[in-house]
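In the design runs reported in the main text, the only information available to the sequence generator was the tokenized backbone. The following block is the verbatim input for one such run; it is reproduced so that readers can re-run the procedure and compare outputs position by position.
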């Protein structure tokens, strides 16, 4: 197998590692699958990546690869369709982020990535559309439906904690 230059690999891992891991956690719901996905994504970055125009192009490519790897795992016969949320609090600094993340994990797959990229990675609808190669109108609809589901779920949590 031809060797690609590793000169900036550690820099890229530091720059994108946390983001790749969190995207995988959002989609897969457990640490082991997220770590495996992260390892495979960086393998592809090291050995199979195209020539990038700039850092934004590289980041978008890595996000797309990560999302595709997550979809492959979720589609696999071996993957159990149980969302494991053990220790998710460790990966988010703010406790409210971890409780919101638990709710995001419970969303259908097509909403998880869009919600995460929009709210946690600050991508625009247009950028998400380009990364996921999906029409902007579909991204808007997924955001809207994802928000509605989250609002419903988060209101339920608020009502439970306030005793209603």
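Verbatim output:
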């Amino acid at each position: 197998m031809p060797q690609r230059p590793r000169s900036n690999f550690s820099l890229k891992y530091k720059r994108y590692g946390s983001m790749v891991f969190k995207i995988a956690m959002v989609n897969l719901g457990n640490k082991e699958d997220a770590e495996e996905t992260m390892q495979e994504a960086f393998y592809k970055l090291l050995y199979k990546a195209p020539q990038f125009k700039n850092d934004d192009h590289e980041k978008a490519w890595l996000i797309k690869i990560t999302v595709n790897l997550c979809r492959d795992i979720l589609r696999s016969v071996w993957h159990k369709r149980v969302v494991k949320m053990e220790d998710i609090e460790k990966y988010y600094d703010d406790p409210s982020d971890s409780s919101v993340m638990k709710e995001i994990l419970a969303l259908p797959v097509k909403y998880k990535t869009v919600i995460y990229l929009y709210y946690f990675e600050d991508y625009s609808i247009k950028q998400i559309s380009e990364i996921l190669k999906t029409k902007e109108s579909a991204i808007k609809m997924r955001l809207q439906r994802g928000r509605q589901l989250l609002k419903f779920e988060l209101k339920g949590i608020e009502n439970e904690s306030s005793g209603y």
